[in-house]
Amino acid sequence: MLNDDLLPIVKFASNQDNEKPMIKIAIFASGNGSNAQRIIEYFQSSRSIRVAMVLSNNPDAPVLERSRKLGVPAEVFSRVEFYETDKIPAILRKNGISFLILAGFLWLVPGNLLKTFSGKIINIHPALLPKYGGKGMYGMKVHQAVIESGDKESGISIHTVNEKYDEGQILFQAKCSVESGDTAETLAMKIHELEHQYFPKVIEEEVLGNRQ
Questions:
Q1: What CATH number does the domain located at 8-209 have?
Q2: Taking the domains of the chain in order of start, what are their residue ranges?
Q3: Can you give 50-100 as a three-state secondary structure string?
Q4: How many Å is the Cα radius of gyration of the chain?
């Protein structure tokens, strides 16, 4: 018969044995980085997922300073390194990265990353795909196109990434209204609110759902 004093110790050991390793994700971003910051902050208290690094193709991107202030290492790479070498996949493997998150990243993802992280690259687009997607459609260009079209709603699309811009499987969409007095700037504010509200949660659901 077990001594009652030992029961808490036995239970604690069992919980420790069942703990799964932390899933590490990397964020790719080209600009300001408000979404990246929101994602980093969201997972700071998580026991399952951690943002392990931020990578950017822009050495002057504010996202680099945002990530460093939050204690997340940042890496800058060139077009040649991204498209003509295996430097980036090697860095990601070295850091134990399982998922890639594109948060305002403007370059098309090359084949070596698509192969290494098949089905595990997630992007967010500031419109309701398939409308207003494709090469050159990003940021304020998207919002301006929506305003000029006279559409009564816009929103966000979170999707997996393939070899074409904005054509991966849609995982989630959220909508907002476009009022008669809206400008590209005011619409952008509405879209940012949706991004910050939903993107981290969808990432969490997708990452944990794909856990091996």
A1: 3.40.50.170
A2: 8-209
A3: EEEEEEECCCCCHHHHHHHHCCCCEEECCHHHHHHCCHHHHHHHHCCEEEE
A4: 20
**Annotated catalytic residue 143:** no
- DSSP-derived letter for residue 129 is T
Q: What is the pLDDT of residues 77-134, one digit of tens each?
A: 999 999 999 999 999 999 999 999 999 999 999 999 999 999 999 999 999 999 999 9
Evaluate the CA torsion angle 112, 114, 120, 125 in order and state its sign.
positive
Q: Which of 125, 143, 159, 196 is catalytic?
A: 125
Token pair of 92 as six digits: 């990601």
- By the 10 Å C-beta count (0-12 exposed, 13-18 middle, 19+ buried), 102 is classed as buried
Residue in this structure with the two tokens 């498209």, named with its chain if needed: 83
